[in-house]
Structure formats: C-alpha cells, structure tokens
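Why should sequence recovery work at all? Because a backbone constrains its sequence more than one might expect. Tight turns favour small or flexible residues, buried strands favour hydrophobic ones, and helices have their own preferences. The token representation captures these environments compactly. In the example below, the structure is given first.
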C-alpha cells in the first residue's frame, strides 16, 4: 500500500524533505498544490509513484506552500535552530540577505505590497541577535563576474551553448532530474548564496580575525529550495580550502515568512524600527546585484558586465533599463549585438515554461546563447517562502515587488558588478581573477544526473 495519497488528490511530500513539510491535520485535499505543481512547475503529473518506489519527486520550490489555503504545507522551520546558535556565546552568527526579501517582508506587517524595507530588515536582524548582517547582493555581483566571463568564453569557443543560469536551485534540480542531457549547459557558477557562504568562512573570517569554525552562516531568502541547496554534498568549499572537516559553506536558511513569524514571536514592532545599514564588509552591491530577485534580472545584470568585457566600456543606457527582459511574462527573448558578437537570449519564469521553450528550441533548431530560468512565477520575488498576506492581488503583487527592485537599481550609483569596489578588492586579495584556479575551486560547482530517481527499481 502506498504511503502517499493518490497523485490525483495532492502532491506527495516525503517526511525528510529539507524544504517543505505537510501538516497532515490541516489538509483538506483541495488540490491546489497539485495544480500549481503540474501547471507551473511540471513536476506533479510528470512521474508516477509506482515508477519511483513510492518516493515523491520534488524540486523543493515551495510553490505548493505558497498556494495552500490552509497552511497545511509550509516551509520547514529553521529559525528555532538559529536562535540556539545565537544564544551560544561560542558562536558567531552571520546572516546574509537576498534581494527579494526586502520588497516583501513589510507585507507581513501590513505595509504596502512591494515596499522596499531594507533598512528596517537590517535593524530587525540586529534586534534578533545576529552578530553581522551582510548583503547577498554582494555575492550576486560575484556570481555575475564568474557567469559573464564564463558566457563570453563559451561563446568564443562555441561550446555548451546555450548557457543556462544556475542561480535557481529548483531549476538546477529540475534539469538534473528531468533533462540531464542539459547538465553541461548549466553555468558552473554557484548561486549568490553558494558563493557568499565559502567567502564568509575564508575571506571575511580572515579580514575580521574570526575563527571560521565558530561561524554559523545563515541565509535569509524568499526561497524554500535554498534549504535543499545548502545541503548539497558538494557545497563545502570552505572546509576543503581550510582543510577542516565538518565545515559547511552555509549552515541554515530561513525564509521571509520565517523571519516575520520570528519577529512577531519576539513582539518586535517592525514598523517602528529605524533604518540601519549593513555591516560594511561584503555588503556593497551594484544595481545589477539588486536585480537578481526579478525574472530577467540575472540576464540584465550579466549583459551589463558582458558588454564591458567585450567593449571595455561601461554599459549604455539601453542596458541600464533593458526593457525586453523586464515585466511579468513567462518568456522574454530577443537578440543583442555587442561589438560584433550576437547574443540570442531568453529569460524564462517557471520550469513549465522552460520545458516548453526547450522543446521549441529542439523543434526549430534556433540558436540561443544565454537563457535564464527561474522556477517561481516572476522570479525570486514570487519565491515559495514569501509572505502570503497579499496573494489575492495575483500578478499585481509580483509586479509591485519587481518594481521595488527596479526602482532601487535606478537609485544606486553603481550599475554593474565589475564596478563594485569590494568585488575588485576581493579578486585582488583572494580570488585573483574570474575563472582563476582558486575561483573555480571556491565559486564553481558540478551537477549530478538524478534521472534514475524517476525509475527506481
């Protein structure tokens, strides 16, 4: 007898899923979880439990939790573990914040949808006891430095094209499971969180004179799949570099919703908090790093730096507000010529749309050079761990959050990742250059063919 209810009733979730959990007593079998997983994610309905040894297939995106009206499905809570580390005087607890959190966190406290609350978010994290509050947008700039250089190298060598982005762990797992022949096309660059973790435990620890074995790295994200990502076996670059077993690059992930629950449990009045800045090291970021939260944002950020790499000039006004890949559409594609090199691109929101687009490429033999894929609708701003207070707004909620990030990009002085002085110093003093041997050791990764999960014997 199956341990799961039939798939025509709801999605199947394993008890040890690191990202999401089902509270069985709350489930009313409404079917909303299976509908979004089938229609937007293309996982539910694309495998059979009888083929998988009664094992659920999940890419950990958490969209089922986003739509569950009874909160029967939620992210797996980690903030209580983080509290224990904060209370341990031997630990140095560091939190790094993803871009999309700051345009959604306020919603959980009654602020307008999409309001940019970065300063209050930083103040809240300090009130909760974190020793350092850092900006993952910094690591987004670092990701772009590696990914844009990798793209130019692939285009010049005509190798493994198109290059697919690798920032979204749910998308990476989707490819590993459902289309592993495309694994060579995934950028080997780690996600921003994947780069932030080992850089903190090596470069940051040395600069701040901190014992890296005492550091607890926490990522604050809109994303439930990051809970899965940080537990991938290969994300232990810091431990290998330091020749110290047991060091993970990133130790915990808490979602935007978790942070809101934590703050409310502590009876912190979020609205009354003053705006506070990040701690200085590993927090400076360009507008390009800010854009990572939006579908099309990684593409836009990468093209700004690719333009510089190919022309030795700063990006022009077109690339500083690249409208062809902005907006809330599942597929945004086009072509741009930079210094005689044509780059055909696409930015895709949801793995279901990506699946159809890949089928279209295969049928038409159209050549693409660079394709961004984000699993969640609208990108990370629609992540599976974002507040649910304004979900009734539908696509307008995603648009408001997107606009919050675009507005901030327009406000900041630095527009491109290569202009970030902290990134320049990081390469000068530690990583040497993009795609250098140490950069590849610390900032790049490999992927695994998981297609056998669909046909376990």
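From this structural description, the recovered sequence reads:
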């Amino acid at each position: 007898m199956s341990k799961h209810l039939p798939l025509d009733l709801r999605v199947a979730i394993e008890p040890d899923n690191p990202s999401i959990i089902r509270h069985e007593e709350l489930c009313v079998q409404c079917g909303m979880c299976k509908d979004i997983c089938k229609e937007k994610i293309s996982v539910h309905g694309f495998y059979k439990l009888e083929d998988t040894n009664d094992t659920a297939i999940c890419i950990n995106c958490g969209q089922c939790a986003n739509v569950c009206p009874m909160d029967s499905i939620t992210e797996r809570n980690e903030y209580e573990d983080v509290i224990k580390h904060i209370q341990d005087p031997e630990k140095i607890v560091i939190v790094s914040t993803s871009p999309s959190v700051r345009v959604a966190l306020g919603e959980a406290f009654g602020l307008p949808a999409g309001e940019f609350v970065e300063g209050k978010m930083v103040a809240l994290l300090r009130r909760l006891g974190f020793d350092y509050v850092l900006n993952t947008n910094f690591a987004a700039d670092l990701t772009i430095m590696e990914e844009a250089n990798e793209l130019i190298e692939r285009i010049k060598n005509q190798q493994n094209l198109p290059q697919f982005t690798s920032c979204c762990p749910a998308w990476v797992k989707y490819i590993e499971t459902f289309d592993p022949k495309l694994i060579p096309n995934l950028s080997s660059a780690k996600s921003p969180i994947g780069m932030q973790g080992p850089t903190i435990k090596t470069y940051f620890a040395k600069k701040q004179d901190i014992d890296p074995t005492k550091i607890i790295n926490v990522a604050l994200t809109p994303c439930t799949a990051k809970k899965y990502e940080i537990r991938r076996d290969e994300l232990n670059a810091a431990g290998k570099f330091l020749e110290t077993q047991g060091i993970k690059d990133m130790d915990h992930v808490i979602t935007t919703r978790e942070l809101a629950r934590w703050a409310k449990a502590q009876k912190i009045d979020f609205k009354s908090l003053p705006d506070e800045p990040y701690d200085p090291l590993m927090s400076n970021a360009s507008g390009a790093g800010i854009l990572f939260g939006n579908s099309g944002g990684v593409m836009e950020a990468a093209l700004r730096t690719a333009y510089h790499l190919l022309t030795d000039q700063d990006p022009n006004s077109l690339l500083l507000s690249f409208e062809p890949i902005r907006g809330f559409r599942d597929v945004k594609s086009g072509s741009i010529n930079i210094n005689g090199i044509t780059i055909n691109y696409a930015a895709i929101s949801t793995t279901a749309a990506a699946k159809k687009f890949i089928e279209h490429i295969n049928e038409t033999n159209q050549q693409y050079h660079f394709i961004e894929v984000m699993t969640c609708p609208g990108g990370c701003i629609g992540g599976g761990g974002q507040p649910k207070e304004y979900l009734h707004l539908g696509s307008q909620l995603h648009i408001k959050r997107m606009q919050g990030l675009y507005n901030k990009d327009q406000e900041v002085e630095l527009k491109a990742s290569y202009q970030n002085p902290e990134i320049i110093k990081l390469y000068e003093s530690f990583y040497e250059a993009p795609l250098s041997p140490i950069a590849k050791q610390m900032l790049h990764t490999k992927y695994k063919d998981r297609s056998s999960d669909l046909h376990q014997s």
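A few observations help interpret the result. The two ends are 17 Å apart (CA to CA).
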